[in-house]
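Complex record, two chains
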Amino acid sequence: MEVDQLQRSFLEYTNSLFRFLDGQFGQLQLLQDESNPEFVFEVVSLFFEDSERILNDLTLALDQQNVDFKKIDAHVHQFKGSSSSIGAQRVRNACIAFRNFCEGQNVEACRRCLQQVKQEYLLVKTKLEALLRLEQQILAAGGVIPMLDS
Amino acid sequence: MLVHIIPDLLSVKTRELFLKNKAAELDREMGLIRTQEETGRHVRMLTHEIRSTLDRHTILKTTLVELGRTLGLEECALWMPTRSGLELQLSYTLRHQNPVGFTVPIQLPVINQVFNTSRAVKISPNSPVARLRPVGKYMPGEVVAVRVPLLHLNNFQIHDWPELSTKRYALMVLMLPSDSARQWHVHELELVEVVADQVAVALSHAAILEESMRARDLLMEQNVALDLARREAETAVQTELMPEQRLMVETILKSSNLLATLINDVLDLSRLKMALNLIKPIASVKRLYVTLSMSPDLPEYSVGDEKRLMQVLLNVVGNAVKFTKEGGISIAAFVAKSDSLRDPEPLNFFPIPSDNHFYLRIEVKDTGSGINPQDIPKLFMKFVQSQPLAAKNSGGSGLGLAICKRFVNLMEGHIWIESEGLGRGATAIFIVKLGIPGRLNESKLQFVHKVPGNQVKPNFSGLKVVVMDDNSVGRMVTKGLLVHLGCDVLAVASGEDCVRAVSQEHKVVFLDVSIPGVDSFEVAVRIHEKFSKRPDRPIIVALTGNTDRTTKENCLRVGMKGVILKPVSLDKMRNVLSDLLEHGYLSESQ
């Protein structure tokens, strides 16, 4: 495919992601340059690793007999921070709701929140993977990744 | 005896017969009425079906199917005018999925006859438009035809419709079953006429929808293309360009109207008054007062981009006038102080005036329709207009406030709106950074004059900084930002590591203060203690996800020089470092 077409598809796809990824993701794209050509890929990969670890920890923590809400809150805070840094706004919002229920020390509600957070994470993960694939295609075709509106 | 009985019997018989006939007649009439009722019901159902879709194909197919069912038709067909308008083409039939595109010239007498009246007209089964069934040995059923007005978009004026505004019609042809001796009843013809009208309306809705979707797609395409062009231009400006190329690129940027470059020149603040002279006539027509108060401690002259500042002011004041029906607008201009801690929106930086700069704060208060606090964040987004604001006379496209925000950001300031709710008026506030002429050091001024229209590009290359954040993703992003700006970054995850790692070579330490269970303020205190005797000890800046007053106060208390709200954008980080540079906390990098 022509580089132009790929770039156009890329921009259109990115624009369609506005509900999932906010302006912060655009900032990450800005940081990718010749001296740092894989930046977005690295940050996103780190985000995936980090998130999966946190989700596992959260699942374990909520399965315990005596649930340690402080620990759970700390985990969710982490997740909120990392999703916010990458622009995954729906994940971040789900984390904010989660923290509210943590404060209320309601185990059932927290389990539901965990499901919600997991779902949002999986959604944004699919979108990010698709985006990264498009980026690879553009680079392979010799083009430059177009920047997003910040 | 019999002679007497027979006439009586006769009259009884006659009466009986009379009654029987009457009964039969009534039965027939009842039957008719029932049919009409049913038909009425059918019409309502039909109309509902037809009007429930906005897809023109579905509209037409549904019409034919439902009509066929309701009236028990053998065939029902629709002929549409061709693009040239000279022929009618068979477009839809009940019995065939894809009719061969028969055409007939539109000027046939039978067609003219039908098109000249809004009534359903009986036509001969032998006319060209009625030859829809294979010719057989049977007696063809009666055929009627009716016109279906096709409304043009620009003719869509209800009071003129359908007589005057349209000249294009489609032709609907309906055939009763052959060999049935059925005849078209009046109520059936009426039904056909009603349906034809409904179809016309439904088709026009579908056409309008198609048109607007096409327009929307075009707009989106243009938007995408413009974004691409703008981004390419921006990237280009950041690299080395020949003067002609630079000029071309900057022209694109300016004309695309989505990015502005600042022209910093002498700004006469008394011009603010003049700007208001543009607004006063409009306000007085609406009988609104406009007052301006300028604080005496405002300098007479300052350095800044006057044109952009005026644009922001006029935009904001214009909005205030637009949405105010009675009362008026009060504008106040003064020097911003750092007690703006009470403001809901934090600045990246405390507005500490220095020898070279001050912050101008302008508040525009109106007694107008107010804004629902929930809608306030959307106001500054492009193309979004919330319902109550998009009143009858809103000619704007919704770009105004978004552009104001852009300009204000370029002037390293902030703009926001406060309102207690609908009907309670609103206050728009913006703060921008302006220079004090004569106090700027020579090199800066020269720089400004040499390359007009270009932002001062600070040089941070090699600046050594430390970033402390326990969140790995956040740490990587902040580090990435600073590396991109040219800094030499050391990233650590804990307060301990931070205190240990900070050396006198590091000029700035960025501390995340929102980590639960970690007292980052203590870390700050310990860092200060480590370098207590040194005049050039590292500056500490807070990174946080919360913006509450307590956090800010704590930061001030431990001597931090700034608070940055996460997530951090490239522009924000650049502004922070520039400010540190200008305040003299950092020296220009070696």
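Note: Residues 167 and 244 of chain B are 56 Å apart (CA to CA).
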